[in-house]
């Protein structure tokens, strides 16, 4: 009796102490989904997002559905973020759903004037989303307060990734259902579009630490009229000087080798072929001979943080797996569940 | 005393069998197409569910809904009126064969039948046969077969039927049937037109079923002529033309803009000569099918698939005695199939089936069947089917059946550009069923336990090709065991002038992947449907109910990834305004989803809210 009373007092005291601590030193938590990873899966039956805490102690599945009691449908292509919000692009639904990035409470959705939204970026309070379009591709310019598309900038076929730098938007054109081979540079002020030709099927693009635009071109397959494959085009890692808009270097892959993912971490580039991840310096001029890590799964998405490689082993008919490899030891240090057809990892 | 009762028992049994046999003979004299009779004769030990035209009228909205409320088949439907496919006893869609007047009409392109690209309201009856024993109609129907029959009858009559139904969401189902018979000629003409805006409310959301409209026209014509005392000739033709839009899904149905067109044209010429113990039937069928898929209904460009088939079938049967007969089916078939992405391919097949029927007096009967296909694309082993029905005591029957089946890959499986897999082999299965039943004039119950062991199942899934894990490709992947129970109850009871009837189907299905030990997705364990009917004088009413159990949507059977179970009920009342020898006029009201409950068959695709239709059925 006495002991339990003592324990109760101790507990109450400890709560008070902790509360005081919070008031004094710590910030209010922004939401349940702060300090962790968000993993998005394309679906079906529906696109889902999982949350994994930074220390991997908790994994929560289908967080959008849990918080909002509704689903996003297919295919959840990507998410974009600003300081408050996450923008979830679901292409077949012609919808970008806006949620608080930390609580995942739905704030609204953009459901008109989008046609196959793929990727989005937010710059100076304005959203820009690539759309495959039904009568030509475009970048939808979005007022993120009213959640309305205010303008459409026409661009070439099959746009994918979009990033902003110094008042310019850079868009990779993989080609949608076909093949394309350009990077569009859009001057936000004038809406003027300049195209830079690269190898076939450019996808990932980002600026490296030296200020060059790095693009991964996957390379394509050539078919004849009766859909028999008759050839290949080469994949490449291309670097573009953003002042002159010209390709300044190109590292080309062998015929039939199609790299699918590219990320930069520190001053290194990491790309993938099949399950294998290759590492090279961003200044290298040749490809490495051997892989850095073989993830031994259906490598469908990867990201780097805290000296770790976060690699998705995707399952398209059940839950996927996220494996964390230490870059130092190359061993798996953590594992968590990930949504069906998981493809993207974001650090929240 | 014991001896006496046994004597009585045998007398009853004998009389019973004799009556049965006589009925069969009478029917076979004036019915031209013997599909139903033959099916029954060749299905000893198998369960056949008969759906007559009045049940067909109860679910005139779609073939999918007819099957969903009246058969043990699980029908996947992408929203009401959308793409629809069947899973019979947990098997895949291409393991259910649809048989039109004795000809298998599954598509050569995808191996299956789309149940909403089809109108069944003109058929006189539909039989649903559970199990893989219909090998005379092709070897791939592992789950079962659905037989759509036009019935022609000689005899003196002129009949007209007009059905007009007007319902919610601007839905109109109309049909007109004319039939004429003389001693030597029988003619049937049918015409139906259906259309609907199909923009039903999505319960629980401030949304509607956008882009769900459909309309279709179906025409059928059949004629039969007696040539002599022993021979007759008949011809059936049917033409279907339908346009559907594919409705959207949650959360943004406005994104939907797909459209689909179906055309089918079926012709069958049938010559029959029957004298004494020999019967010869020669059939020639010419069938075409075409679909056009518009990714954007506002644009002119579309993808298409089309096929044409020529089937020549010779069927000879010989009766050794009143109790035993043998029948052979020889069939030559040539099929041409193409899509906008697959150049025209031709597949030829010769098949020979042999069926032996034996009745053992006072005990039961059995069939034994073998079939061998010679296919231009595949070498196909023998398949067989056995079935037996035993009636050990009055009213009780025991049935057994078993079969070996093969399903050849469809053109899409083989040739889909850059995805198809030309190294596929036919999937195969071995199955058995044992059933026990009781039947009297008012009550029938049949319980069957089935077991299907299928291997090399052709499955489209991502990762089937390890080189391209994210791409959906076909492969001979799964080894699957399907096992379960099917229960059928039919009951009728008259109390004074009130008559009641109940028809119910329950199926319990476990479909397990042998390697992963997990259940296959999209197959409910429990499926229960039933109709309770009541009539009194000029009024009749019915209530239909469906309980569809929860399904997993992933292969790892996660509780987070499911479509929840649902209950849905429909209610109808008919009033018989007029009835005499030649004329009958009924007025009816039907309320679908009586309780206005939201439900989904497939995720994010809400099904219709409560809706009403008014119908007039005029026979003259």
How does this structure look, described?
The complex is a heterodimer of chains A (348) and B (620). Chain A contains two helices and 30 strands. Chain A is mainly beta. In chain A, the strands form eight sheets. A four-stranded antiparallel beta sheet of chain A has the order 3-2-1-30. In chain A, strands 4-5-6-7 form a four-stranded antiparallel beta sheet. The N and C termini of chain A lie far apart (46 Å). Mean pLDDT of chain A is 91; it is low at 15-24. Chain B is mainly beta. In chain B, 9% of the residues lie in helices and 56% in strands. Chain B is built from five helices and 33 strands. In chain B, the strands form five sheets. Chain B has a 22-stranded antiparallel barrel. Chain B has a five-stranded mixed beta sheet with strand order 1-6-7-4-5. The termini of chain B are far apart. The interface between A and B is medium-sized, with 34 and 34 residues.
């Amino acid at each position: 009796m006495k002991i339990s009373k003592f324990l109760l007092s101790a507990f109450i005291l400890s709560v008070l102490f902790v509360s005081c601590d919070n008031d004094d030193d710590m910030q209010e938590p922004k939401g349940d989904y702060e300090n962790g990873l968000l993993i998005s899966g394309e679906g079906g039956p529906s696109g889902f997002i999982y949350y994994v805490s930074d220390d991997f102690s908790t994994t929560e599945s289908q967080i959008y559905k849990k918080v909002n009691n509704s689903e996003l449908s297919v295919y959840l292509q990507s998410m974009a973020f600003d300081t408050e919000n996450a923008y979830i692009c679901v292409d077949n639904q012609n919808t970008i759903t806006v949620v608080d990035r930390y609580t995942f409470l739905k704030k609204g959705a953009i459901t008109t004037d989008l046609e196959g939204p793929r990727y989005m970026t937010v710059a100076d309070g304005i959203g820009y989303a690539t759309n495959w379009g039904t009568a030509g591709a475009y970048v939808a310019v979005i007022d993120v307060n009213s959640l309305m598309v205010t303008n459409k900038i026409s661009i070439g076929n099959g746009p994918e990734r979009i990033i902003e730098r110094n008042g310019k938007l850079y868009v990779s054109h993989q080609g949608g259902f076909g093949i394309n081979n350009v990077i569009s540079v859009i001057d936000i002020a004038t809406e003027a579009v300049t195209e830079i030709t690269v190898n076939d099927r450019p996808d990932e693009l980002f600026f490296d630490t030296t200020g060059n635009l790095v693009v991964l071109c996957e390379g394509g397959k050539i078919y004849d009229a009766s859909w028999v494959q008759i050839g290949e085009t080469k994949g490449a890692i291309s670097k573009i000087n953003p002042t002159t808009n010209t390709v300044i270097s190109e590292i080309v892959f062998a015929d039939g080798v199609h790299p699918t993912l590219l990320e930069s971490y520190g001053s290194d580039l990491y790309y993938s072929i099949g399950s294998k991840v290759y590492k090279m310096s961003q200044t290298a001029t040749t490809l490495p001979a051997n892989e850095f890590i073989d993830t031994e799964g259906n490598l469908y998405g990867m990201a780097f943080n805290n000296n770790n490689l976060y690699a998705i082993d995707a399952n398209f008919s059940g839950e996927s797996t996220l494996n964390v490899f230490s870059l130092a030891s190359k061993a798996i240090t953590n594992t968590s569940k990930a949504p069906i057809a998981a493809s993207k990892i974001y650090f929240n | 005393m014991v001896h006496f009762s046994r004597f009585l028992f045998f007398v009853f049994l004998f009389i019973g069998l004799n009556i049965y046999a006589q009925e069969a003979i009478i029917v076979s004299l004036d019915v031209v197409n013997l599909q139903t009779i033959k099916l029954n004769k060749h299905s000893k030990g198998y369960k056949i569910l008969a759906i007559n035209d009045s049940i067909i009228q109860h679910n005139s909205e779609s073939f999918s809904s007819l099957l969903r409320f009246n058969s043990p088949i699980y029908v996947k439907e992408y929203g009401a009126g959308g793409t629809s496919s069947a899973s019979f006893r947990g098997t895949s869609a291409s393991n259910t064969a649809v048989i039109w007047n004795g000809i298998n009409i599954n598509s050569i392109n995808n191996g299956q039948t789309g149940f909403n690209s089809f109108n069944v309201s003109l058929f006189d009856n539909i039989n649903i046969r559970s199990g893989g024993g219909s090998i005379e109609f092709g070897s791939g129907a592992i789950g079962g077969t659905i037989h759509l029959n036009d019935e022609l009858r000689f005899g003196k009559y002129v009949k007209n039927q007009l059905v007009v139904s007007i319902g919610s969401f601007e839905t109109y189902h109309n049909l007109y049937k004319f039939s004429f018979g003389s001693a030597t000629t029988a003619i049937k003409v049918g015409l139906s037109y259906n259309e609907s805006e199909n923009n039903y409310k999505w319960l629980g959301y401030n949304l509607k079923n956008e882009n769900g409209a459909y309309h279709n026209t179906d025409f059928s014509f059949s004629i039969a002529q007696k040539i002599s005392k022993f021979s007759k000739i008949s011809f059936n033709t049917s033409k279907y033309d339908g346009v559907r839009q594919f409705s959207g899904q949650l959360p943004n149905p406005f994104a939907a803009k797909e459209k689909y067109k179906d055309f089918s044209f079926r012709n069958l010429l049938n010559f029959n000569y029957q004298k004494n113990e020999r019967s010869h039937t020669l059939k020639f069928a010419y069938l075409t099918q075409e679909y056009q898929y518009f990714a954007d209904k506002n644009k002119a460009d579309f993808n298409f698939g089309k096929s044409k088939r020529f089937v020549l079938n010779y069927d000879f049967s010989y009766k050794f005695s009143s109790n035993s007969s043998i029948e052979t089916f020889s069939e030559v078939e040539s099929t041409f199939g193409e899509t906008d992405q697959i150049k025209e391919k031709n597949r030829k097949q010769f098949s020979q089936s042999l069926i032996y029927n034996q009745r053992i007096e006072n005990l039961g009967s059995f069939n034994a069947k073998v079939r061998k296909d010679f296919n231009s694309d595949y070498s196909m082993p023998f398949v067989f089917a056995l079935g037996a029905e035993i009636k050990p005591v009055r009213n009780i029957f025991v049935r057994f059946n078993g079969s070996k089946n093969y399903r050849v890959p469809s053109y899409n499986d083989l040739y889909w550009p850059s995805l198809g897999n030309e190294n596929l082999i036919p999937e195969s299965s071995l199955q058995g069923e044992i059933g026990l039943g009781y039947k009297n004039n008012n009550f029938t119950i049949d319980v069957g336990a089935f077991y299907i062991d299928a291997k090399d199942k052709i499955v489209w899934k991502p990762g089937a090709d390890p080189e391209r894990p994210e791409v959906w490709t076909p492969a001979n992947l799964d080894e699957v065991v399907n096992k379960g129970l099917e229960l059928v109850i039919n009951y009728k009871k008259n109390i004074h002038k009130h008559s009641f009837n109940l028809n119910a189907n329950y199926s319990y299905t476990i479909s397990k992947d042998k390697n992963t030990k997990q259940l296959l997705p999209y197959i409910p364990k429990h499926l229960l449907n039933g109709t309770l009917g009541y009539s009194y004088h000029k009024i009749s009413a019915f209530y239909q109910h469906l309980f569809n159990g929860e399904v997993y949507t992933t292969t790892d059977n996660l509780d987070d990834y499911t479509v929840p179970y649902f209950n849905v009920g429909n209610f109808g009342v008919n009033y018989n305004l007029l009835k005499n020898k030649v004329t009958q006029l009924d007025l009816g009201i039907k309320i679908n989803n009586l309780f206005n409950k939201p439900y989904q068959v497939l995720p994010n695709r809400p099904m219709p809210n409560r809706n009403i239709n008014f119908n007039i059925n005029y026979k003259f």
